[in-house]
Specification:
Elements: H1 7-33, H2 42-54, E1 70-74, E2 79-85, H3 99-114, H4 117-120, E3 122-128, H5 137-144, E4 152-154, E5 157-159, E6 170-179, E7 183-184, H6 195-209, E8 218-225, E9 232-233, E10 236-245, H7 248-269, E11 272-277, H8 289-301, H9 318-324, E12 327-328, E13 331-333, H10 344-349, H11 353-375, H12 377-389
Parallel strand pairs: 2-3, 2-4, 4-12, 5-13
Antiparallel strand pairs: 1-3, 6-10, 6-11, 7-9, 8-10
Helix pairs in contact: 1-2, 1-3, 1-11, 3-11, 6-7, 8-11
């Protein structure tokens, strides 16, 4: 790692993290106790907005279209650092992905960095990014221009262990519906066009396709409509299908092959086929090497061991951001008792003392990583050049 964070700047950041610590933890606990589903995070967004206003962030900037998204800025520097705040929960099990921790830690980092925005020549931009667990709100914000001018982007994610540098899987989800013609299955089956048969043909073809797919490409599906009575030829059958792959180009190639399987089902049976994408396509996550290293070094000084490598895990709309803006999306670890994400046990751990420590540590780690990049002449130039390529 080249250079180090200036002592004065490091002191400003550390003091700000300590000053905001009670409010950060209050936010984490409040979100944990009051979970809201994707796209419905009204109270969460209001809480985040209130803390930003208290810290002097300005809101007289273009705002996102989604009612639970937000944008606020502090500082006037040419180097723009974006902090992405997730706050949606899961149906039935609350914050079982730890987004209360994500939100509190990432917001804390933004507030801390804003205290040093002047000497660092930074603009700190906070984006409230709803619906990560469903359609991927960050993709919408990218398309709306909310990341325009950004030189680097940050967020942290709750986990049972620390890591940075690992990727995520590209993900696409589609709803596929076959339309046929109903008929009595006993008295006039020849008059029917069986939509369920088309779906069975498609599923069989997908099963055979797996032999030609790369080992790390995953295709999963569920039948959402297969008819209502055995004595009626189904005139409608539908499935929801997901494709995951290590890279976006692999995802696109796999989806093209899967789509041909469904088109074959329609052709074989005489049905028609409707295809509708469900949510945004998530790209694979590309973590910036310098920012990841700076984060890891900072966290190690706080007593954490943060590996710089890891397997591709799950999927996130932060991947799309990372294809446009140099980004990191580290995992911050706390005691989850061995529980996996998206379980009630993981949700329960998100308001404990170990999670609270993770919030504070990660807030400092993200802010210090951004400061390190802003102060390193080579990295600052690289980041500004990336903005010029993708304004």
């Amino acid at each position: 790692m080249t250079g180090a964070t200036d002592v004065r700047v490091e002191t400003l950041i550390a003091e700000a993290v300590d000053r905001w610590r009670p409010r950060m933890l209050d936010l984490s606990h409040a979100l944990h106790a009051d979970p809201e589903l994707s796209g419905e995070e009204h109270r969460a967004a209001k809480r985040v907005r209130a803390m930003l206003a208290e810290a002097g962030f300005r809101f007289d900037v273009p705002q996102p279209a989604a009612p639970t998204a937000l944008r606020a800025e502090a500082g006037e520097g040419e180097l723009v650092a974006v902090f992405c705040i997730e706050y949606d929960a899961l149906p039935g099990i609350g914050h079982a992905c730890g987004h209360n921790v994500n939100a509190a830690a990432t917001l804390g980092a933004a507030l801390a960095l804003a205290s040093a925005a002047g000497p660092l020549g930074l603009t700190v931009r906070v984006l409230g990014t709803p619906a990560e667990e469903s359609h991927g709100g960050k993709v919408d914000l990218l398309e709306e221009g909310m990341f325009d001018g950004a030189a680097m982007a940050f967020m942290v994610h709750a986990s049972g262990e620390d890591a940075v540098g690992n990727s995520s899987l590209a993900l696409g989800c589609w709803d596929l519906t076959f339309h046929g013609r109903a008929a009595h299955a006993a008295t006039a089956p020849e008059d029917g066009v069986n939509a369920l048969s088309a779906l069975v043909v498609a599923q069989t073809a997908v099963g055979l396709l797996r032999q030609q797919l790369p080992r790390d490409v995953v295709v999963s599906q569920v039948v959402t409509d297969g008819g209502s009575a055995p004595n009626v030829i189904p005139d409608r059958a539908s499935a929801r299908l997901e494709v995951r792959a290590p890279r976006r180009d692999q995802l696109d190639a796999a989806w093209a092959a899967v789509r041909r399987c469904f088109e074959a089902g329609a052709h074989a049976t005489g049905c028609t086929l409707d295809i509708e994408r469900s949510g945004n396509v998530f790209a694979d996550l590309r973590q910036d090497g310098f920012l990841a290293g700076a984060y890891a070094e900072t966290m190690e000084r706080r007593g954490r061991s943060v590996p710089l490598r890891g397997d591709a895990i799950a999927s996130t709309d932060m991947g799309n951001v990372s294809h446009r803006v140099p980004s990191i999306h580290p995992m911050v670890g706390y005691d989850v008792g061995g529980a996996a994400h998206h379980t009630a046990e993981f949700a329960l751990a998100g308001a404990g003392s170990s999670a609270d420590l993770a919030v504070v540590d990660a807030a400092y780690g993200l802010a210090a990583a951004a400061a390190r990049a802003a102060q390193d002449p080579t990295e600052r130039r690289r980041l500004l050049e990336s903005v010029a390529r993708h304004p």
